[in-house]
TrEMBL record:
Protein name per its UniProtKB record: ABC transporter ATP-binding protein
Annotated compartments: Cell membrane
GO terms for MF: ATP binding; ATP hydrolysis activity
Domain ABC transporter stretches: 4-229
Protein's organism: Micromonospora zingiberis
Annotated PROSITE patterns: ABC_TRANSPORTER_1, ABC_TRANSPORTER_2
Length: 302
C-alpha cells in the first residue's frame, strides 16, 4: 500500500499555474525522486504533500492522513528539509538538535543522531562556522530528529562540491536502509540515477513520465551501441544474424554494433565462440538526460 498518494493536484499563484493535474504514489521504503528544472513545480508539489501549502484542487493522502485536516498528527510523522533552510548563525549543532527534538512526542536521541550523521566533532560548532556539506548533514539530522516515517528532502545537494555531494548521497542511502521512506526533490540527473528507485519527471507543472530511472531510459531509447576492434577479420554476418542486433557498421578498424535487450552478452558470446578478442570494447547507452530531452524537448539546464 502506498504511503503517499497524490491525485490530480492543482496549485496556481495568480495567473501562474505551478502544479497542473499532478498524480503519483510513493511506496513504503523507497527513495522516490521528483525530477525537473527550476520552476517546474517540484517544490510546490512536495510542500502540498507536507501540508505546508494548500492546493487549489486534487487530493493528497500521507500515511492515510489528509495534510490539511490532520496537519498536527502529520508533523509527528513526516520530516522536511526545505530548499533554503537557515538557522541563526550562533546556534550550535547540538543546540539545534535539542531544540527541534523538543517539538516531537517521541524524538530520536539528538546525541546519537549527531554521531550517526558524522557531526560528532562539530556538536559545539556555531551554524555559521559549518561547511556547506556539514550544513546539509545538519539539515538532514533536523528532518530526522522526530523519528519520521517519511523524510522530504528538497534540493539537498545544491551548492555542494562533488565530494560533499557524494558523501550526502551515501548518507541518504543509509537513512533509507534504516526504514525511512524518502521523497527527494532534485534537478541533478546523476543524483536521480544514483539514488532513486522511481522518478516523477515534472516539467511546466505536469508529470510527463513516471518510472524507474532505467525504465525511463529504456522506454525512450532502448538501443545500445557497442564499439570494439576485432583481433582478427570479422564477418559481419556473425553479428547481423543475432536477434538482438539491429545494425552493424564500420568506422575505420572499429566495429559498431547497435542492438537491444542483452545485446552485449550476445555479441561477446559469439566473438568468444569464434576466438575473436574485442579490443577497446565500449558500451554506449542512453542516459537519463537523453530520456529527459526526449520527454520534454529540452535539456534540464535549458
Amino acid at each position: 500500500m502506498p504511503v503517499i498518494e497524490v491525485s490530480n493536484l492543482h496549485k496556481r499563484y495568480g495567473e501562474t499555474v505551478a502544479v497542473d493535474d499532478v498524480s503519483f504514489d510513493v511506496a513504503a521504503g523507497e527513495i522516490f525522486g521528483v525530477l525537473g528544472p527550476n520552476g517546474a513545480g517540484k517544490t510546490t508539489t512536495v510542500e502540498c504533500v507536507a501540508g505546508l501549502r494548500v492546493p487549489d484542487g486534487g487530493e493528497v493522502s500521507v500515511l492515510g492522513l489528509d495534510p490539511r485536516r490532520d496537519a498536527a498528527r502529520l508533523r509527528q510523522l513526516v520530516g522536511v528539509q526545505l530548499q533554503e533552510s537557515q538557522l541563526p548563525d550562533r546556534l550550535r549543532v547540538a543546540e539545534a538538535l535539542d531544540l527541534y527534538a523538543s517539538f516531537y512526542r517521541e524524538p530520536a536521541d539528538p546525541a546519537r543522531l549527531i554521531d550517526e550523521l558524522g557531526l560528532g566533532a562539530k556538536r559545539n560548532t556555531p551554524y555559521d562556522k559549518l561547511s556547506g556539506g556539514q550544513k546539509q548533514r545538519l539539515s538532514i539530522a533536523l528532518a530526522l530528529v522526530g523519528n519520521p516515517k517519511i523524510a522530504i528532502l528538497d534540493e539537498l545537494t545544491t551548492g555542494l562540491d562533488p565530494q560533499a555531494r557524494r558523501d550526502t548521497w551515501s548518507l541518504i542511502e543509509r537513512v533509507r536502509d534504516s526504514g525511512v521512506t524518502i521523497v527527494l526533490v532534485t534537478h541533478f540527473m546523476e543524483e536521480a540515477e544514483r539514488l532513486c528507485d522511481r522518478l516523477a519527471v515534472i516539467d511546466s507543472g505536469r508529470v510527463v513520465a513516471l518510472d524507474s530511472p532505467a525504465g525511463l531510459v529504456s522506454a525512450v531509447a532502448p538501443e545500445q551501441r557497442i564499439r570494439f576492434r576485432p583481433s582478427t577479420p570479422l564477418d559481419d554476418r556473425l553479428l547481423t544474424e543475432l536477434p538482438q542486433v539491429t545494425a552493424v557498421t564500420r568506422s575505420g578498424a572499429q566495429v559498431v554494433v547497435t542492438g537491444t535487450g542483452d545485446v552485449l552478452h550476445a555479441v561477446t558470446s559469439v566473438l568468444a565462440r569464434n576466438q575473436i578478442i574485442a579490443a577497446d570494447l565500449r558500451l554506449e547507452q542512453a542516459t537519463l538526460d537523453d530520456a529527459f530531452v526526449e520527454l520534454t524537448g529540452h535539456r534540464l539546464t535549458d
